[in-house]
Amino acid sequence: MSKEKFPRKPEHRKRLLYLDSVRGFCTMIIIVAHAFSHLMFWDMNLIPLEEVSIIAIIILAPVIILATSAPAFVLFSASALSYNFYLDIKEFIKFKSENIPNQKTQIDISFKDPALSRIVKKNLISYLVLLVASLAHVFLFHYGLNWNGRVQRTLLTGILETGSFTSIDYEVFFQTDAIGLIAISGIFNVGLIVLLLRKQGYYKPKRNLLILLGLIIVWYILSPLFHNLLDDLFWQSLNDGRYGITLLLKFIVGPPMSIFPNFAFGFAGIIYGFGFAQEQSRAFFRKLALYFSILFISVSGTLILINGFNLSPESFGLFLPLELQILDFAVIQILVIIFIEIIKYSKKSKNEITKSTRIWQRLGNVTMTAYIFESVLCILNMKWYIPLWEKLPQSSLILHLEVFIFVGMQFALWYGIILLWEKKNFKFSVEWFTKIIRKKLVKNNKKK
Predict the structure, then answer these.
(1) Domain residue ranges in the chain
(2) Is 278 buried (19+), middle (13-18) or exposed (0-12) by CB count in 10 A?
(3) DSSP H helices in 308-366
(4) What is the per-residue pLDDT for 318?
(5) How far apart are CA 377 and CA 413, in angstroms?
(6) What's the Cα-to-Cα distance from 292 to each of 287, 337, 382, rounded to whole Å?
(7) What is the DSSP letter of 146?
(8) 3-state class of 145 per DSSP?
(9) pLDDT, average across residues 219-235
(10) In the 8-state DSSP scheme, what is residue 105?
(11) What is the pTM of this model?
């Protein structure tokens, strides 16, 4: 047997450029949507909803539609995870075939193998670091939310919002934000991918596809059942101080980013990741997005016709209506296929595509960092920005200008920070810390 050890330096692996771009696009939506919400809903409430002009609503329609689609990042994360995981297995099989005499055509995949177990550990470590970042976010940096009957504020951002040291709202610790959802989903998906690919599973792509499609449907069917059973128990245990039960329920139905139904985004992400690793056809992805969007828009529309639809800013700290979450799933499929079409299947050269999508690529490099700290920057800027407008007549036009200029400034400021930070390879960002910690822990495991 060859003395060469796996993993070797991987052969040139194609990056999923569409994934980097769509993640960056959604990062822009986070920055813009939260800037609007701070001025219009949360802190300033400059323009009552009934007074927002129809022109503003038309301009904001795409942002409004995507503003509740934070679970899209679960899909992006799962796509990258499954794509790289699948290619790691593919390279492992190739290595075995080339270096082990009389090796069978189809190799049993065992994750007890040190090389494969390192791949699992590497990914688990990344998601565990994100889980810690999530806990820091909901305790220190998140903006105030209507939570358990009153507006509750995090420690550091709460001081900025109120202008004074506030008592600590310990209950915010039990919120599940988008980063926590990505982390919990990622840990679950690592286990799911292992189950799908172990033994001879790697050689059964159709079976794996059917399992994942079935999981998406089942997950949405089970979601209202779990919420009906456990939502009241979550709030009751929180109010009674039974924090052990509350913590457990946080990881099952904890608002606002509950794993039911949002894990379904991760299952869809695995389908996309596997599909690209298996070099599926353009028609495969078109059909996937088309069938998903038609099915979920139809279901969402039917539920809205039956139950009606009411979404106010106060509900953003609670459980979003199921029909909205189902619609979000459809919208994200449409967004993903648009980026796949214009980037993956573009007739332009790779350099031209990279150049034309540079803005999204940059934003996608620090998605987690922007998500955690954008509220802090937003509130700091409101402190000096709002007084500049106080001497002007508070007409509807002035108020609308005040909001739109602020949002533009926030995005420009973030992009400027990212341009400068890029020169330092985003050192000390959440993403940078994640890579450093993962490398150190995986290296220590190797030595043992």
Answers:
(1) 25-68+346-447, 74-333
(2) middle
(3) 322-339, 350-356, 358-365
(4) 54
(5) 9
(6) 8, 11, 40
(7) E
(8) strand
(9) 92
(10) S
(11) 0.91
